[in-house]
Each structure stands twice: as C-alpha cells, then as structure tokens.
Amino acid sequence: MMRRRNARVIEQLLGELEAKRYDSALVERILAAPGAFPQLLRACFLAQDRELDAARADVDRALECGGGNPVVAFAAGLILYTTGDEQRALDQLARAAELSPNAAKQARKHGAAMASEQADAHGHDRERLEQAKRMLLKALAHYTGPKPV
Q1: What are the TPR repeat spans here (predicted)?
Q2: H/E element holding 106?
Q3: Which domains does the chain have, with CATH numbers?
Q4: What is the separation of C-alpha 90 from the centre of its chain, rounded to a whole number of angstroms?
Q5: Fewer beta carbons under 10 A from the terminal one: N or C of the chain?
Q6: Is residue 2 exposed (0-12), middle (13-18) or buried (19+ Cβ within 10 Å)?
Q7: What is the number of H-type helices and E-type strands within the chain?
Q8: At 110, is the pLDDT very low, low, confident or very high (cuts 50, 70, 90)?
Q9: What CA–CA distance (Å, rounded) separates 114 from 106?
Q10: What are phi and psi for residue 92, nearest 5 degrees?
Q11: Torsion angle, CA of 80/138/100/40, rounded to 10 degrees?
Q12: What's the pTM value of the predicted model, to 2 decimals?
C-alpha cells in the first residue's frame, strides 16, 4: 500500500516538475512534508532550467532536514556543482564520503572530476543532474510524504 502511494506521489511530482510547474499547489504540498528528496528533485529541474538561485535555495532546505543522509549530501553536491557553487559541491561530496563508505568511491570520483574540469562543463552538468535525478527517484520510492490528491 505504501509503495503504491509513494509511486503515485512521485508520478504526480514528476508530472508537475516536467511541466515546469515548480510552485504549483501540489508541488508545495509535497514539499511541505518533511523530507529532503522531493526538494532535491525540484532543485534538479530548476538547475536544468538555469534557475540557479532557486535550485541552490532548494538544496539548502534539503540539507537542513536531510544533511546527515549520504544520498542527500551526494545529490546536493552534484546539483550545487551545476549551479556554479563548486566549493560547496566539493564539501557535500566530502560529507557524503564521510557518511557512507558506499558513497565514498563515487564522491571521490566526482570530486576529482569537478576539481580538474575545465572544458565542456555544460555536458557534464547535464549528466550530473540526470544522475542526481536517478538517485533521488530511487530514494523517493521509500518516501513517506503527503497522501496523493
């Protein structure tokens, strides 16, 4: 029952975000529930649309409630990098590595790439946002937010 409800909430959230209705009543209702994953998912879409300040604000809110989760820290690092906040991105990847040995290898890989990257940043940004979305959708499968409408 819970998984079906989660799947419906995720489907509704994605529908709103893909339609670029970032501040719809449904999105606001979902984001009002405690949890960092929906906030980070919206941040991915905002960053993809180059709404960088709004994306960073969503990352900040997500870190307030989920900064101790390695998935949150890792996704936040990827999103922050695409918004141009490189130092905070590297800090979040380091935090993810601290929190989970499983995240450490990926965090080091992305951190090293970010630190040395100079060319073709836009293509890498898109790849990072897609990776963050995939991670967040997987995490959202266990999300216990508001009931779907």
Answers
A1: 70-103
A2: helix 101-116
A3: 2-140 (1.25.40.10)
A4: 15
A5: N
A6: exposed
A7: 8, 0
A8: low
A9: 12
A10: -70, -35
A11: 20
A12: 0.75
